[in-house]
Specification:
Blueprint: H1 3-15, E1 21-22, H2 23-30, H3 34-47, E2 50-52, E3 57-60, H4 62-74, H5 77-92, E4 95-102, E5 105-112, E6 127-129, H6 134-140, H7 145-154, H8 169-182, E7 185-188, E8 195-203, E9 209-218, H9 227-244
Antiparallel strand pairs: 1-3, 2-3, 4-5, 4-9, 5-6, 7-8, 8-9
Helix pairs in contact: 1-2, 5-9
């Protein structure tokens, strides 16, 4: 293999697993000696395509996820998943969003309007924060803890959009644990007053949290009592989107 081929092989080994890998493991899986793998990983770290853990393991970095988000957009993934989103809108009756992670934020790729007389202010292409949206919290809840802390550090101080926005790091980590237990995230007027959202994570074929699906509505029509009913619908739709992106389990 030439140097470019070796770089691509290491890149695939790094991105193709849902947990951090040691230098020895990557070298064994790629058939490339540890010295060369280490040199390639150092380049990846410098460019943001990899991060190193305190225990000597390596994982995908934010630049790789940003690249993945751009690739999803280029593939016109919205056409692939739109029928799933439309089906969720019909069954939930609320506005549906699909967004992908882009570094320390997320970007809306698709929006299916509800039949309600009002329209949500969200727009395709808009960047949203991760700490105060259902989509963002669904993504964060399925990232390694070290990566979550890195995202929070990169966006600190956490912006307060409403009186309900969680801006304390410890409270946010506790909220993410609640998201994992429930299986879905809730934005209870945390990003925008009088708007409530329910979101669930979308994962790619490697099990990486690349985005999320959500339903959103004014609190007058999407009450707190509606959330437990909508949660399973959103989770099921997000699982179907994940399957469309190659997730097999």
């Amino acid at each position: 293999m030439n140097s470019v081929e070796k770089t691509l092989v290491v890149l695939r080994a790094l991105a193709g697993h849902d947990r951090p890998r040691s230098l020895a493991d990557i070298a064994q899986r790629t058939g490339i000696n540890k010295t060369t793998v280490h040199r390639i990983l150092q380049i990846f770290i410098a460019q943001g395509y990899a991060v190193t853990r305190g225990d000597g393991t390596y994982a995908s970095g934010p630049a790789m996820l940003t690249l993945a988000g751009a690739a999803l957009t280029d593939r016109d993934v919205t056409a692939l998943v739109r029928p799933i989103l439309e089906n969720l809108q019909r069954h939930s009756t609320h506005t549906v969003h699909f967004a992908v992670r882009s570094g320390s934020a997320a970007v809306y790729l698709a929006k299916i309007e509800s039949q309600q007389p009002y329209r949500m202010a969200s727009r395709v292409g808009t960047q949203i924060a991760l700490h105060c949206t259902a989509i963002g919290k669904a993504i964060l809840a399925h990232l390694p803890e070290e990566e979550v802390r890195a995202v929070v550090a990169a966006t600190s101080p956490l912006m307060r959009n409403t009186a309900n926005t969680i801006v304390d790091r410890n409270l946010l980590m506790a909220e993410l644990e609640a998201v994992r237990r429930r299986g879905y995230a809730i934005d209870d007027e945390e990003n925008e007053a009088n708007v409530r959202c329910v979101g669930a994570v979308v994962q790619d074929g490697a099990g990486t949290a690349v985005g999320a699906v959500s339903v959103a509505g004014l609190t007058l029509s999407l009450g707190a009592d509606d959330v437990p009913l909508l949660g399973p619908l959103v989770v099921a739709a997000a699982a179907r989107v994940s399957a469309a992106l190659g997730r097999t389990a």
